[in-house]
Specification:
With about 300 residues, this protein is of the alpha+beta class. The chain has two domains: about 120 residues, Aminotransferase class 4, branched-chain amino acid transferase, N-terminal domain (D-amino Acid Aminotransferase, Chain A, domain 1, 2-Layer Sandwich), CATH 3.30.470.10; about 160 residues, D-amino Acid Aminotransferase, Chain A, domain 2, CATH 3.20.10.10. It is about 25% helix and about 30% strand. The protein has eight helices and 17 strands. Strands 8, 9, 10, 11, 12, 13, 14, 15 and 16 form a nine-stranded mixed beta sheet that branches. Helix 5 links the parallel strand 8 and strand 9. The longest helix is centred in the C-terminal third of the chain and has 15 residues. It is globular. The two termini are about 25 Å apart.
């Protein structure tokens, strides 16, 4: 990972190497942080952030679920994100806002700890490799399950919960796969370690519902909207594991993964073992908008300059 020059930290810009927290910060010991991931794209009209407001709103919602009050307004954080891109002189980047509990005590009721906020930007390419967007990736169904209802709030993007995602990702890597697919507590398809999943069968697109312990992905909603624009039928559907194997197409979505086809699952080829036509059509719309080649008809882009 290449360092940027400046990080926005509690309302001020500080050099990358000086953006530090105490080793006794509550978040370091107990995972008490909330974060987001956003992308700034280099478009024909200059750099633009995809769904900036939607990401900031989800950050606030996650903090509300977790009983953490952000000491800045939504407008302030949106402008801070844009200014962080500007001061680092980047045309395209990944943006990471994080809200975390700092040092005060080790009490498991963390509300005496100060709430700190940082925004960093880094240059970052395709999550699963540049070739994955066209050729697809090979994945496995993980032995690790997503959290059961009433254990962790799946709708909140809380740092500590990503230990589960790390286990899914490490297991997949150890077995020679690019990614893992986690099932929910009932054994139905949930999501990847850091992506939502879509399954195409007989010209209909299926995706697990929020009740399957998934994160309500911003890119997931973008893709649902684009698919409907293309007159594709989209259904939120409880997805059995075996439905994956007989699918015509499968693809991941996420800020980092964007729209990534799945070539095989558990060494079973999906469809023809390459990117399918519906996936390609959705990719064309998505990358057309984020590059500025197609009109931003849904108002998803916020211009940096």
């Amino acid at each position: 990972m290449k360092k940027s020059e400046q990080i926005w930290f509690n309302g001020k810009f500080v050099p990358w190497d000086k953006a530090q927290v105490h080793v006794f910060a509550h978040a370091l010991h107990y995972g008490s942080s909330v974060f987001e991931g956003m992308r700034c794209y280099k478009t024909l009209k200059g750099p633009a952030v995809l769904c900036l407001l939607e990401h900031i709103e989800r950050l606030y919602n996650s903090c509300k679920i977790y009983r953490m009050k952000i000491p800045y307004s939504k407008d302030e954080l949106q402008e801070a994100a844009l200014e962080t891109i500007r001061v680092n002189g980047l045309q395209e980047c990944y943006i990471r806002p994080i809200v975390f509990r700092g040092f005060d005590s080790f009490n498991l009721n963390p509300r005496s700890c100060p709430v700190e906020v940082a925004i960093g930007v880094i240059e970052w390419g395709t999550l699963l490799g540049a070739e994955s967007i066209e050729k697809g990736v090979d994945v496995q169904v993980s032995s690790w399950r997503r959290m059961a209802p009433g254990t962790f709030p799946a709708l909140a993007k809380i740092g500590g919960q990503y230990v589960n995602s790390q286990l899914v990702a490490m297991e997949a890597s150890d077995h020679g796969y690019s990614e893992g697919i986690a099932l929910d507590i009932q054994g139905y398809v949930s999501e990847g370690s850091g992506e939502n999943i879509f399954v195409v069968k007989d010209k209909t697109i299926y995706t697990p519902p929020l009740a399957s312990s998934i994160l309500a992905g911003i890119t997931r909603q973008i893709v649902i909207t684009l698919a409907q624009d293309l007159s594709y039928a989209v259904k939120e559907y409880i997805v059995p594991r075996e439905f994956l194997y007989i699918a015509d197409e499968v693809f991941f979505t996420g800020t980092a993964a964007e729209v990534t086809p799945v070539r095989s699952i558990d060494r079973i080829l999906i469809g023809e073992g390459k990117r399918g036509p519906m996936t390609e059509r959705i990719q064309s719309e998505f990358f057309g908008i984020t590059s500025g080649k197609l009109a931003d008809r849904h108002g998803w882009l916020t211009w940096v300059e």
